[in-house]
Amino acid sequence: IADPTLAEMGKNLKEAVKMLEDSQRRTEEENGKKLISRDIPGPLQGRIQNIGEQGHVALLGHSLGAYISTLDKEKLRKLTTRILSDTTLCLCRIFRYENGCAYFHEEEREGLAKICRLAIHSRYEDFVVDGFSVLYNKKPVIYLSAAARPGLGQYLCNQLGLPFPCLCRVPCNTMFGSQHQMDVAFLEKLIKDDIERGRLPLLLVANAGTAAVGHTDKIGRLKELCEQYGIWLHVEGVNLATLALGYVSSSVLAAAKCDSMTMTPGPWLGLPAVPAVTLYKHDDPALTLVAGLTSNKPTDKLRALPLWLSLQYLGLDGFVERIKHACQLSQRLQESLKKVNYIKILVEDELSSPVVVFRFFQELPGSDPVFKAVPVPNMTPSAVGRERHSCDALNRWLGEQLKQLVPAGGLTVMDLEAEGTCLRFSPLMTAAVLGTRGEDVDQLVACIESKLPVLCCTLQLREEFKQEVEATAGLLYVDDPNWPGIGVVRYEHANDDKSSLKSDPEGEKIHAGLLKKLNELESDLTFKIGPEYKSMKSCLYVGMASDDVDAAELVETIVATAREIEENSRLLENMTEVVRKGIQEAQVELQKASEERLLEEGVLRQIPVVGSVLNWFSPVQALQKGRTFNLTAGSLESTEPIYVYKAQGAGVTLPPTPSGSRTKQRLPGQKPFKRSLRGSDALSETSSVSHIEDLEKVERLSGGLEQITLEASSTEGHPGAPSPQHTDQTEAFQKGVPHPEDDHPQVEGPESLR
């Protein structure tokens, strides 16, 4: 460096970098883990991310700029001019933008606003003199793509003082090409219509990588159209970074011929506090000065200092290597996802876009027997819409799971109008900060493959679960588009007000007990309760399924358990009233019994001394009378039979306990809500056949015993009754003892078979 000031600054910069390296070495502990030696005190303590050496260099540029601003004017002018020109020349060389100028700005959209001012001054020669009256006579039109980032048009109108009718939103392709690319034919029609109405087509904003999915417009065709009608062409997007690579697609390479472009090298390189850059081509320095793209203040030129220092630290090869690494990560993920079933990649221009957008889709091909979709009969259009919402919820769940399992992947979840919920992988914006490597991409693909069985199984069971719930009395299916599980159901109790949207305390109590009962079953499903979608009533949310689930058994268990809880709850509520009435009735009867005993014994026996003498000479033989309360019948009964049985030494025989309904037979180790494993490969041939045969023997044996017992009881004492020998055979068969004349082997009892 010839300038002595620059030479001295370079020397100080080397010393600063050396101090940073020494500081990092001192912060290494014995276990090799790096810590910050001197943390910033206050609320920022422990919250600043590790930005690395290049990040410290970029931050050093802001402090160094403050020191440089204290130089004398002549040295400051020379130094800032040299920094600005070197940075501009380096960027134009990297991104193939010949004979360009650079404007550095903090706000990313600020550069486009300055370009619009330059276009207005270029097309309206009398604008400086006449002002907005010139615009009134011939209104300017700014064309934006429908896929542009939100709020860009409103920002431009606010900065330029233009009304909103000056904006023209160009739709994207609907018939051919990408649905996120600008429709060139329709744009040409809009331009012709505006010219016929006396308007002036001023500027067109094209995308080299849309904000949503990273699609690139047909910039070459747009450039020809802009040259034909004298329109300024401005390009922005993340795909402009690929101009620094050796191979660039034709659509992105055409952006090097545009009138201006805006880039954000800070996120691309993982550098904090690095300004955005707008490269433009214009020959009139006076107009660029009026538009604000250039400045005579040396301090404004110092905005390029952080980027200049970063370029000096990384070098040209290091700068390009960062961009190349990010593009390689995206291509690696694309190639891996092409081999994964049920994952659809939405980015069509795969070679030029470093952005990967994909989603789990609902059309399950029947080629794979593991995830073969269960066909649902009579699929209505409304059901298809529900499947779309179901896939959106599943993709949101998948995105949250992947962000937790692979935080270095930098995935984001977004909603697109046509495709629905998708996942976006943009390493150009996140890899430098998160330190994403190829191993992280492989781990991301492995996690996606591990979650596919859960997604496919849950999607197959949703419609079946809905049909079972709608066919069951007492259950209401709740359509919640944000729930990724099998479904949401609400139990309608007797006092449920269906028209009200307020919270229901009785329903919340029933659902809380239902949740507890279902969790005690130890099934693979997860359950939780929460407010209903669009209301405050409590509902039961059934989680995702990792295996085939019997929806009919699941719904039957839910409604049976809820009814049992409701009946028990009613019994407990009525118990208080029944007990209170029983106590009052018992008090009345005991009072009557006391009065009867008083009349029977006489008045003399109530006198203390006289009563004792009479009781000694003539004792009263009176039975103890009391009352017992039957909770089942809700009635009072006398305790006299109890005392009689007590005196005779005979206990009260308890009524037989009623047996519950017959439960579904399950194989050993089979969890609740699982479908029958007959013919399944989950069990081995010997184990599955033996267990199934044992269950069938139990069923046949139980049915045979009941039939024999009924026949024996019905034929006793009638003509044609069996002989004693036949009776003995029946008893022997019931006891499991073979008859001497029977050649068949002994059959084990039901308990032994179980």
TrEMBL record:
Pfam families: PDXDC1-like_cen (PF22930), PDXDC1-like_cen2 (PF22937), Pyridoxal_deC (PF00282). SUPFAM superfamilies: PLP-dependent transferases. The keyword Ribosomal protein does not apply. Residues 353-459 form the PDXDC1/PDXD2 second domain. GO terms for molecular function: carboxy-lyase activity; pyridoxal phosphate binding. Keywords: Decarboxylase, Lyase, Pyridoxal phosphate. Residues 650-754 are annotated as: Disordered. Gene3D superfamilies: 3.90.1150.170, Type I PLP-dependent aspartate aminotransferase-like (Major domain). Residues 691-700, 738-754 have a biased composition (Basic and acidic residues). GO terms for biological process: carboxylic acid metabolic process. Residues 465-570 form the PDXDC1-like third domain. Its cofactor is pyridoxal 5'-phosphate. Belongs to the group II decarboxylase family. PANTHER family: PTHR42735, PYRIDOXAL-DEPENDENT DECARBOXYLASE DOMAIN-CONTAINING PROTEIN 1-RELATED. This is Pyridoxal-dependent decarboxylase domain-containing protein 1. It comes from Pan troglodytes.
